[in-house]
Amino acid sequence: MLRPQDTATRERRSLTGIWDFRLDGTGAGHDARWFAGPLADARPMPVPASFNDIVPDVEVKNHVGDAWYQTSARVPRGWAGERIVLRFDSATHRAVVWINDTEVMRHEGGYTPFEADVTDLVTPGDEVRITAVVNNELNFQSLPPGVVQEGPRGRKQTYFHDFFNYAGIHRPVYLYATPTTYVSDITVVTDFDGAAGARTGKVSYDVVVSGDGSQDVRVLLRDADGEVVATGDGASGELTVQDAHLWAPGDGYLYELEAQVVDGDALVDSYLQTVGIRTVEVRGTQFLINGEPFYFTGFGKHEDQAVRGKAHDDAMLVHDFELLDWIGANSFRTSHYPYADEVYDYADRQGIVVIDETSAVGQNMGVMSGMMGMPAMETFSPETINDDSREVHAQAIRELIARDKNHPSIVLWSIANEPESASDASREYFEPLFALAKELDTTRPVGFVNVMLSPFGTCKLAEFSDVIMLNRYYGWYVDTGDLEVAEEHWRAELQGWASLDKPIIITEYGADTVAGLHSTTADPWTEEFQSAYLDMNHRVFDSIDAVVGEQVWNFADFQTSQMVFRVDGNKKGAFTRDRRPKAAAHLLRKRWTGKSDPSWAGSDRD
Ligand code: GCB
After folding, report:
1. Could you report the per-residue pLDDT of 230-272, keeping only the tens digit for each?
2. pTM assigned to the model
3. Are 555 and 510 in contact (CB under 8 A)?
4. Which terminus has fewer CB within 10 Å in the chain: N or C?
5. Residue with CA closest to ligand 1 atom 4
6. Please, where are the H alpha helices in 161-234?
């Protein structure tokens, strides 16, 4: 599914703004046909935004169930004769959408787009009513999973992942128009021959055209200056780029492929696809980008901020990338769900490397159920995560790869974070999902993120993973505060993993740290401890060649559900939630860039 664009043949109208909104905890709105007229008793709600923190009301914050959104929009009169589409970039975790009185689409999964052709339901020049009911319940067949329990004060949502269950319409909504014969998909795969100076880039393309008109395709590839450097005829082919400028970490050089549908000399449709020419390969314990060993520095992130919750925001996007640059991070993981399209576009432009993750987080009853006071349960069983869940998971992988396949910044798919991975049941569940991801994209490695509860020697999924991704908290959740012992234990486990002859990325290591809390003895929760903890980890990583990356947990402090071991959220950020650096940020900057700030460590300034 291609994103809406403004091109010579296409136009879009953003529906972001303030919509009408009403909670519906009992689900009465469906039967009462709330979509069939103006939403009664509505309050204003911004789109995009999570609804939870907009209103200072615990009923809104912790709402479980349906939430209705409604707006009206005038369909541009110039769209007569065009194909008209309604598109949501996401709605968390599922939605049903109506145009006027007609249901036009349903979608499961909170982090990928969905759209419907509404041409027959709208009249250019007229106003339409758009209603969406968004549901935020998590169960064993949703991603992520959760359980809704009846409590003394109504229904309560429990889940097994460590971030707040923000919900709502988190990303832009569009009405857009294309010609009735149009480019409906593009796949681009790149390669190159030769060395710097005489490098020939190869861009294989595959363009899908839908509609009844001419199916003739022409493509033009332009360089960053807008010069056409290659052209092709036909829906698929390979373009050759002399003296190609590669996309590389830190050098987000992009070409632009224009896919045209033509009818003789007439232009029927035009779609613009950015292209970064680069290769990715796993060889032995090395992770190669453009044939060169790459070492990941950076973070696991979250889409999380005050007020907006998980809503996309360009100011925060650019600011976060500036901080990544400042600190010397060359990469991040989209823990623990697909992020907004804008994030990957910007990563492409900035030359930041991305590990792209599905929203399969919390498939592990062992990690959280004890802490949440829930009875012990099997993770994978007919009553819990089962075949239906796997189909939802498979669909999430399909939608992720379909949406993100053309981003040069993405070098690795992560199909799950910390699932239970030591049982035969987990192996049975996951084996076909690894196969699916590899079949859908033969150009990128596929992996999953392993949890501490499944240490080296016990994991039944590592054999399917091209890269070993480990989340480890030696010195924090185990050997708490005892960094010497933690270092021994950590090194011993890591040496085991290194024997598998696969690259290892440490996708999480971190310690909760309250900004401003200090001690001379580096006690847990202080800024000194966070720094000492990171130093210890770095000593371990530096002693093991198979380690090809370190991503600190987390880039910034973030909101979680209420738990006794969370203080207004998770505090493992190198930055606070409002993006102020903790001491650890300066330490990381020194390690990753060699630079230190004048205000920090005065004795070893640049
Ligand atoms: C993990 C999870 C992450 C948590 C983190 C923590 O292993 O992957 O979602 O937030 O630990 O801080 O406990």
Report:
1. 999 999 999 999 999 999 999 999 999 999 999 999 999 999 9
2. 0.97
3. no
4. C
5. 162
6. none
